[in-house]
Amino acid sequence: MDIELARTFIEIVSTGSFIRASERLNVAQTTVSARIRSLEQQLGRALFIRHKGGATLTPAGEQFLRHAPMFVQLWQRTLHQVAVPPGRRAVLTVGSEVSLWQPLLLDWVRWMRKSLPDIALRVHVDVPQDLINQVASGMVDVAIMYAPQHRPGLKIDLLTEEKLVLVTTDPEARFLGGSEYVYTDWGPDFVLHHDTSLPDVAPDLSFDLGPLALSYLLTAGGSGYARMSAVQPHLEEGRLHLVPEMPQFSYPVYAVHSANSDETVVGPALAGLHSISKDSRE
Fold this sequence. Notes:
CATH topology of the largest domain: D-Maltodextrin-Binding Protein, domain 2
Structural class: alpha/beta
CATH superfamily of the largest domain: Periplasmic binding protein-like II
Largest sheet: 9 strands, mixed
Shape: globular
Strand content: 15-25%
Number of domains: 3
């Protein structure tokens, strides 16, 4: 079976639509339709029922869904194993969202290089939507993410609970508002809780990337919400200050990996990641 057929099938299930699947795969909708026709011909069964709202699985589609992620991930692992460098027993591709590479991903990679020297590493950083697609397709073995989308064949483990705290470069600051407040879009949950807790705040400067917003604060001054682990060194140095009596928001961090992962490789790596996450909380 052409592995692209299984990948296309998984994308349609994930998005619920042939159109949205074609957008994710960056191919024409006719190509997506042709791949599914070919897959259905090979299996001898219809896999989807198409309707105005998108596409739903047939009973045969539900059965194929149990196996499709395994096909894709097995193929990707095979490619990894063929490319294993001399002296290593396996290759592990790990990744994170852009805002999580420092310090969690970096600490994890250092730990693995020391504790799992027989495993070659590939490290990848990307935006959430692309990253979860890469884990689902088997291109990334384990990813560290904030709000991962549930996909067929994936496991999601809670690592730690980050805190989003309001910090400022002005030690006398006691309120939000005005041009000094820099808003960062930390995702749907943050937007909901922020708007509920601070309904009167109307920022005129916003960022959709936490590290960029923090860099701006440190260079231009102002206040904004950031991850406690990211601002802790700056708090200790006196470059930033916590704004007292302002709400803090939970921001959980997860590890995402395939349910069909090779436990002899992924298991020890995940154990190290959990240990590092625990140490960072203590």
